[in-house]
Amino acid sequence: MILIIARMFLFILSIYGFKWLLQQFLGIDPKVGWIAACCLNILILYFGAFAGMLESTAIVLAIVGWSFASCGLYSKFRKKKLFQPRLNLINIGLLVYFLLFAYTLLNTKLEHADNFSHWATIVKFLYTESRLPTASDTIISFGSYPLGSSLFVYYATKMAGFSDGAMLIGQFLLIYSCVIALFAPVRDESRTLVVAMNFSLLAVFNYFNVSIRMSNLLVDFLLPLLTLAGIAGIYSMRKNIKALSVYFILIASVLSLIKNSAIFFVGILFIYYLYTVVVARKWFGKIWHLPANVLAVYGASLIPYIMWTIHVGQQFSSSKHAVSLSRYQQIFLEKDASITAEITEKFMAALADFTSIPSQGILLFNFVMIASYISIRFFVKRNNSILRCTVIVDLIIVAYYIGMYVMSLFSMPTEEALVLAVFERYASSIIIFSLGIAMMVLSREIDYSLFEQGIQSRNHRSFKNLTTKKVYQFSSMGLLFFATIMLLSENNDMMYNNMYKNSVPYAFSEIVENQMTMSSERYLVISADKEAIEDGLISYVGKYYLYSPNVEAVENFMMDDDSFLNLIQKYDKIVVLDDHNTFNAMTNKLIDTQFEPGIYAVDEYF
């Protein structure tokens, strides 16, 4: 573990080098510098992959990052700032947040099925093959999924070594970089109440992220966080058009490469960027510079997505999740009027279920925002933008839910649409987005509502009276206590409440080491877990661990002798995952042998 930590430190140091570069030459806000640097690395790796030089690009990227990091650290040393870290509540809280979850994730094993159906498998493919997958690489089930976060996780494994912990830390570094960026709009970092409120909302994210969690490589949590980081950076750099535009290109490009459904969040960023530059049009000079700049920035941000769309069209036109109007039309036509009505009814019932986690999130967002508006407007007697922001975000939520409904009709197979598959996971993304907006808006409005507006003049006496000081202190302490309890609870849940030893991945890991060389051998997995076989879990996990596209799982061996032997002899090896009475009864009858969990060569026994 010590070696992994040391190598991960070098990885972070390389990212820091690009952060220093962006700050030094573009004036990128320090708090959004981390996510900007991560996005820059992803895009460089992306173009390197398209050029067929993924591994060499990763090596050069690391070396260049270390070079810039050396320059940055030397510059701080000359200015005598190297050993003078800024110790405030935000930095201390973020450091504790990082150490707490990084340690847990480093010791966590992958369990969620979607890790093995795609996310971990594509990282493993990139790590071993060092190239983009093609249609012939059938081990990749969802070839149309973009490679945004997977490239960064791949880069982390190249630096720290391939393991579950390294992959999870790589994903967490992206998440953590976004979290840092959320504090960019904070006007005065010394105000405990504002900072405590932000950490409280950050802790609440974990409750609404319960169906995704950070202990896997799924991107539904990353999508809203990256969007929020984009909005925070655009706001904090609204007077620096050059830095703002470069930052937008980095964030929007990578966001479009995270997942196909990210186009909704990219649209939000597009609109907010346009609004910001229009408000700041006085910085452009001649009037025609504004539309020219916007079109150039939008065009640049779309280049990576267009490249991926062309690649998918050439390689994966038949992929289940490929973006195709003809495919959408085909899926929709498969649903008759009764099925459409049933889907609509279930969707509306899910919306009306106020006990569900997404509904609770919508209610919480509106309650916090409206209560804050009333308090500031009628008690502090100051006009504010909270109500306007609340209405805008509510409209975004409505648009998002409409998009989810349309997706269930046009792009989701009937059997999945009828049970509202992954409804809660997708809905949680927009809830996290709305709470993040609340976090940024309230951090500004509450600060502007404090008695002393001069930041330099604020001290322990900067209160209207003793009563307001006590309210401020008790509120700050209560929020900090709440945030601490919530974060510790989430960490403990991930650490102690996992079911890994009862999982299919654990069963495979007990039988075979994670194979890192692509194989064409044919495997038959024998398991008594009918449900895990029917939903494809055992096949996906088998393909990942055995690293072969030719893995099939069977539970039912109620067949005659010839059929049994013909089935077995189609494969090179059999993998007995658990004690299977019917299978062992057949082998005992035919070859006088019973098989314990393990891997066996077919030609040695049959």
Protein model, in words:
By secondary structure, this protein is mostly helical. The protein has three domains: 321 residues, no CATH class; 126 residues, no CATH class; 102 residues, no CATH class. The chain has a four-stranded mixed β-sheet with strand order 2-1-3-4. The mean pLDDT is 85.
Summarize this structure briefly.
With 606 residues, this protein is mainly α.
Secondary-structure map:
Blueprint: H1 2-26, H2 30-50, H3 54-78, H4 89-106, H5 113-129, H6 148-160, H7 164-181, H8 192-208, H9 222-236, H10 241-256, H11 263-279, H12 289-315, H13 325-333, H14 337-352, H15 357-379, H16 386-410, H17 414-418, H18 423-448, H19 466-496, H20 504-511, E1 523-526, H21 530-534, H22 537-546, E2 551-554, H23 561-568, E3 573-576, H24 581-591, E4 598-601, H25 602-605
Parallel strand pairs: 1-2, 1-3
Antiparallel strand pairs: 3-4
Structural class computed from helices and strand pairing: mainly alpha
Sequence stretches where pLDDT stays below 50 over 5 or more residues: none
- Helical segment count: 25
Q: H/E series, N to C? A: HHHHHHHHHHHHHHHHHHHHEHHEHEHEH
Domains, number = 3
For the sheet with most strands, the description reads: 4 strands, mixed
Mean pLDDT across all residues, rounded?
Answer: 85
Strand count:
4
End-to-end separation in angstroms reads 43 Å
Kindly provide the radius of gyration, computed on alpha-carbon positions and rounded to a whole number of angstroms: 26 Å
Specify the helix fraction band: 55-70%
Strand order of the largest sheet: 2-1-3-4
Shape: globular
Keywords, please?
606 residues, mainly alpha, 3 domains, 25 helices, 4 strands, 68% helix, globular
